[in-house]
Design brief:
Elements lengths: L1 H13 L3 H14 L15 E5 L15 E5 L2 H7 L6 E4 L12 E6 L15 E6 L15 H11 L4 E5 L7 E2 L11 E2 L2 H18 L1
Helix pairs in contact: 4-5
Length: 207
């Protein structure tokens, strides 16, 4: 399975633990009582906007789309401007606001075990993981919240995918990427490498 092999390589590179990835997935699976994957059918045949948390997020004037998918912390900004995302793709390290009608595609991994409590704030949750999926968990693929959102949208055959604030080549990390930033911050070498991977994934999906 392509993505299982990919995650194995990522764990080796970043020295993440498979056991923690699996444990996090197990905890997320225990919190899910219904399979809301069918709600993602709203993507089919629609013009879909993927909104990232890059520095250009605050410069967006208008989002021209039928379905809005936000990546993690971008949700906080969108909601503050009165824009409620239809779908949020998140690994829980940026999102702090949880609109009731939004569908949340949540990734469990070894580094967000302590954040899984946020799931209780969400009504419609689709659990995903980066180990072989089990129970109610899915594996759509991808690396960062942004490229996982693109993969998710593509899987459900939209008419068109538009990208907003997906600033893969920026020298800064957007202040909405993490709630504790408070301002755009210079990008670290490891974040730059992660964004290179994410950009390659997006280019491959959208080509």
């Amino acid at each position: 399975m392509k993505w299982i092999s990919f995650y194995s390589k990522i764990r080796e590179w970043l020295r993440f633990s498979y056991a923690k990835d699996y444990y996090s997935a197990s905890l997320l699976n225990q919190t899910i009582t219904e399979d809301y994957t069918y709600l993602l059918d709203e993507i089919r045949g629609k013009k879909v906007a993927i909104v990232g948390a890059g520095p250009s997020l605050t410069k967006i004037k208008e989002i021209d789309a039928d379905v809005i998918i936000s990546a993690d912390g971008a949700t906080n900004y969108l909601v503050s401007k009165g824009v409620i995302p239809d779908i949020v793709v998140t690994d829980l390290d940026g999102i702090e606001i949880f609109p009731d009608k939004t569908v949340y595609v949540v990734l469990a991994h070894g580094d967000n075990i302590t954040r899984l409590g946020k799931v209780k704030e969400m009504k419609y949750v689709i659990g995903t993981c980066q180990v072989m999926p089990f129970g109610r968990l899915k594996l759509f693929g991808g690396f960062t919240d942004g490229d996982r959102a693109v993969i998710l949208a593509k899987k459900f055959n939209p008419e068109k995918i538009l990208l907003y604030a997906m600033d893969f080549d920026s020298d800064y990390i957007g202040k909405f990427s993490k709630p504790w930033y408070g301002a755009d911050v210079p990008i670290s070498w490891i974040k730059r490498e992660k964004l290179k991977i994410a950009k390659n994934i997006v280019n491959e999906v959208l080509q």
